[in-house]
Amino acid sequence: MTQSTATEANSDRCDDVQHSFEPPNKQQRQSNYQEICNEFFRKVRSYLKDKPTRFHLIDEDFAIDNTVVDSKLEDLKKKIVEVASEQSYWGEEMPARWILLEQELMKRIAEGVKVISCEDVENINKEGKIPIDKSEELDLFLRFLHETGTIIYFSTERLRESIVLDPTWLIDALKSLINAQPSLPEKPAGIEYQSTNLAEGDVEGAVTQSWSDFKEKGILTLELVDAVWTKEKYPH
């Protein structure tokens, strides 16, 4: 084989290799992306088919790419408005005193307040220009904000004393438990673990066991919650 022939043969092989490993074009990438999205939503719907939350599903799926300006985001916004307008409370008139109190609560959120007591809300209401004068209506107001996702409030006797003004903050706090890695932070001064049946010297061992129970059995103990939230600086 001459040098020229060998060079041509090598060139042909290089062309074959380049052709074999040619990256997918835009149409192919879009097709793969859509297949992945379809499979993801299929699994979600399959998982929820026997659960009460299935009633919250709509007939459309929206896969949003948050790394770019995705045109589907506008479609999602329109769908949210469409679904929201079908809710029973849509279009109902809201008392002006409700709006004023909601604005006061929004000020607290802007100031960084995450959780507020029911007593504090009552005091804020009393100091307002047009206060809600009945406790039943105040409870209805708080339940309305809960239903619309503005706050987290449960009117049961055991839970009503703590009102979460920033639902995202609570979600992040719960997420910190799910994503936490096994470690025991140094116990800061003034922090008491919420355990009624452990001596202080046994706390570290209890937390270590709690990690094992949480990862293997899904059992979440107060000792573990205290350890994680103390490390993540979530007040509790």
UniProtKB/TrEMBL annotation:
Record-given protein name: COR domain-containing protein
InterPro entries: COR-A, WH-like_DNA-bd_sf
Domain COR: 95-187
Region annotated Disordered, chain positions: 1-31
Organism: Potamilus streckersoni
Gene3D superfamilies: Winged helix-like DNA-binding domain superfamily/Winged helix DNA-binding domain
Keyword Repeat: yes
Keywords, in A-Z order: Repeat
Residues making up the signal peptide according to the UniProt record: none
Biased composition annotated in UniProt, kind: Basic and acidic residues: 10-19
Domain of life: Eukaryota
Pfam families: COR-A
